[in-house]
Amino acid sequence: DIQMTQSPSSLSASVGDRVTITCQASQDISNYLNWYQQKPGKAPKLLIYDASNLETGVPSRFSGSGSGTDFTFTISSLQPEDIATYYCQQYDNLPRVNFGGGTKVEIK
Amino acid sequence: QLQLQESGSGLVKPSQTLSLTCAVSGGSISSGGYSWSWIRQPPGKGLEWIGYIYHSGSTYYNPSLKSRVTISVDRSKNQFSLKLSSVTAADTAVYYCAREGGSKEGGFDYWGQGTLVTVSS
């Protein structure tokens, strides 16, 4: 099994801050990684696919990078509407996929 | 615009079978290149992928649930279904259906709104 470890599990930041979340895979997954945003009571939303590609319609303050085992998700300037839990998801061994544990982002 | 909508029993007794359906509108479930998944989220916890059914009809399940899961498709109704047998309280969760594939292989780009299933006597 490929394990996905996200950190931190939660963070608190001010509006306008740069926010960074990391996701580490237990083995090399190339760039087979996606990032999702989940707001309370809502379904997850795909933000970033293939580690660094921005989904259509997603604001450019969101970005992703990395390959192999180490990945980063960044919000360049945190906005109040970005309050959510963010998940990474690997698909290196399709059809089997799994998600990271999530990072809850709050406003300070 | 593709839309997915889950439906089914919100309360299931322990040891019984959970049954949910996902109705797809705005597109065909038979479109090549996509798979149709079930994903669940226990209250206050993270996401767990349950399994896929491909446009071809072939299925693949999370090994941790494989012995209890069946995913099937009804092309005439443009919907797919989940059955999870021998449920326990640990199966209490919000259950989502989602589409994977196309240009975003491995990515779930359309989701239903989710339906809460509680396992309780």
Spatial extent as radius of gyration of chain B: 14 Å
Shape label of chain A: globular
Number of discrete helical segments of chain A: 0
Number of strands of chain A: 11
Query: What's the end-to-end separation of chain B, in Å?
Result: 39 Å
**What's the rounded overall pLDDT mean of chain A?**
97
How is this structure best described in words?
The complex is a heterodimer of chains A (108) and B (121). Chain A is mainly beta and 108 residues long. Chain A has no helices and 11 strands. Chain A starts with a strand and ends with a strand. With 121 residues, chain B is mainly beta. Helix content of chain B is 0%, strand content 56%. Chain B contains no helices and 11 strands. In chain B, the strands form 2 sheets. In chain B, strands 2, 4, 5, 6, 9, 10 and 11 form a 7-stranded mixed beta sheet that branches. Chain B has a 4-stranded antiparallel beta sheet with strand order 1-3-8-7, with no helix packed on it. In chain B, β9 and β10 form a beta hairpin. Chain B is globular. The chains are: A mainly beta (108), B mainly beta (121). At the A-B interface, β5 and β10 of A face β5, β9 and β10 of B.
Helix and strand arrangement:
The complex is a heterodimer of chains A (108) and B (121).
Chain A (H helix, E strand, L loop, with lengths): L3 E4 L2 E4 L5 E7 L7 E6 L6 E5 L3 E2 L7 E6 L2 E6 L8 E7 L7 E2 L3 E5 L1
Parallel strand pairs in A: 2-11
Antiparallel strand pairs in A: 1-3, 3-8, 4-5, 4-9, 5-6, 7-8, 9-10, 9-11
Chain B lengths: L2 E6 L2 E2 L5 E8 L8 E8 L6 E7 L4 E3 L7 E6 L4 E6 L8 E9 L2 E8 L3 E5 L2
